[in-house]
Design a protein that fits this description.
Blueprint (H helix, E strand, L loop, with lengths): L12 E7 L6 H13 L4 E6 L13 H11 L5 E4 L1 H5 L4 H11 L4 E7 H5 L7 H7 L2 E4 L5 H5 L2 H5 L21 E4 L8 H8 L3
Helix pairs in contact: 4-6
Length: about 200
């Protein structure tokens, strides 16, 4: 095990919530809590990315974003990490592949908001991600219908689970995904950045 990486045992169910977290906000916390409950996860790791290739402007430094995110959390089952910086990966497909090598036997689930499913087909090697880990999609304001109709959802239609099967998502062989509804938070990192002004 590399120094600085979280500890995980084979058989554990761990959700991976990636993003710039620039800054982390209550919406991230709500998604995390819902994912742990609905998918019966043992842990959720927040993967604070060095940068998002789909975003025009670069985020604040990783250490600053990690520190802010950690101050928001009180549940010890949620771990805020800079794993992508530690591993030297930029693309989600590379990060997931590396984690599966480092943590054999751990049952990872990729977590995303429904707004991300809308653009999932634009991610680098998105179908490789879907082939490596089950995907838990949590509804976000204004994107539920678009997510269900998205190109990725259409391609993965046969792999979609029912809501009744959501609790077994981590045990499913990929590709497998499910879209679940949750109480909405309209907070977004973009809005919070504009509200707090320039750094």
């Amino acid at each position: 095990m590399r120094a600085g990486l979280p500890v995980a045992r084979p058989g554990m169910r761990i959700g991976l919530l990636g993003g710039s977290f620039d800054p982390a906000h209550q919406g991230h916390v709500n998604i995390t809590e819902a994912a742990m409950r609905v998918f019966h996860l043992d842990r959720v790791w927040w993967l604070v990315s060095p940068g998002n290739p789909l975003k025009e402007h670069g985020p604040a430094p990783v250490a600053e974003r990690v520190a802010h995110a950690r101050r928001m959390l009180t549940d010890p089952r949620v771990v805020v990490t800079g794993i992508e910086q530690d591993l030297g990966t930029r693309m989600t497909a590379d990060t997931v592949a590396a984690l599966k090598r480092i943590y054999p036997g751990v049952r990872f689930v990729w977590l995303m908001g429904s707004d991300n499913l809308v653009q999932f087909h634009r991610w680098d090697r998105w179908q490789d991600i879907a082939a490596m880990v089950p995907i838990g999609v949590l509804a976000r304001p204004g994107s539920r219908t678009a997510a269900r109709r998205s190109p990725a959802a259409q391609v993965m239609a046969r792999a979609r689970l029912s809501l009744a099967q959501a609790e077994t998502l981590a045990l499913r062989a990929p590709p497998a995904w499910v879209l679940v509804n949750l109480r909405m938070s309209r907070q977004s990192s973009t809005v919070l950045r504009h509200a707090t002004g320039p750094r």
